[in-house]
Amino acid sequence: MERRRVVITGMGAVTPVGNSVDEAWENIKGGKSGIGTITLFDAGRLPVKIAAEVKNFDIAQYGIETSAVRKTARFTKFCVAASAQAIKDAGYTKETLAAERNGVVVGCCMGGMEATGDAFAKLDDKDAGPLRMPPLTTPLMITNEAAANVSIVFGLKGISWALNTACASGSDAIGLAADMIRAGKCDVCLSGGTEAAITEFSIASFVKLTALSTHFNDTPEKASRPFDKDRDGFIMGEGSVMLMLEELEHAKARGAKIYAEIAGYGSSCDAFNITAPLKDGSGAAKAMELALLDAGIGAGEIGYYNAHGTSTHANDVGETNALKMAFGDDAKKLHISSTKSMTGHLVGAAGAIEAMVCVKAINDGFVPPTINIDNQDIEGGCDLDYTPNIGVKADINAAMSASLGFGGHNACLVIKKFAE
Fold it and tell me: Where is the Ketosynthase family 3 (KS3) domain (predicted)?
């Protein structure tokens, strides 16, 4: 039996570099950083003063009834807004999409962190206490809230799933959604990721892990520097990207525009450590190999690789080793970039924004840069072509994006230029 093909017919984005797909892509192409001084809370008690915040966000501008999402957490608002964009971009209305065999799959790692922080503040306040905790704390903080509210706001009564595999959540969500369409469980599926973890509580928790950059508070745009010798940790980001995935014949029948095809998906686990990746990259390499096998293509056919590229010593070396293992000699010819150098790390939404970047790179024939590579860490093992500082034109027929999360979760997507 011929396998059902899955294509992308709509995209929506709320990100630190722009609150639409086109704005975000143009800023990424141009190497513009979305990282700045934290404004969402007073970071005075922390050694980290910077993050990649979403700016000028107003959910009303996306045509959503604000009362419907007023009592939701920030990560959900982002997801609903990105979903509204993707639905419109795909040529659907709320009514026409609800009539389809639909689904929603959203990756999220941290959930409603501002709700968690507010509740703990009340709990610890001797004049307030547990009985003064906000009554909506539970539905605001749990990670399934985004998927559930997308379904509620748009009347989507098919599958509605939340997926948490840490930093791999967004990629795994897209891969799972594609597999559901392939399996005939739905014809269209909104999928991607969302996160809003720029709070004192969550930043402090990553500070204690020594995972965040602390050396660039005065020059935030320089702080995320994947594969550079001076990298010292990742930058927390926030936002949401949602894609409309659709079975090919279904999309063609309604005359939908097609951006690209989800050709392959691979997932693996290092089964090694809760925070540290395998130094040899073998776990990540397995996910890459499985994605290539699923797509039915060889490593040499990948024209662009969007790196997980977190700007941490452990990730950047391990990921480089993974590429060498999965691609062999073709790794030396591969166009690579880490767009986290501009967007920061969107955690559960990272794989989604990076899938969007792959789609735009294919459509525009352009490899975006990794900014801030001033002194590439070749001696440390980061010796591939990471497209330093300036993007380049390239004919890209297939792109790959990998997301590598705490717990050893690895997810990889292969996205191809659409062809009949």
Answer: 3-417
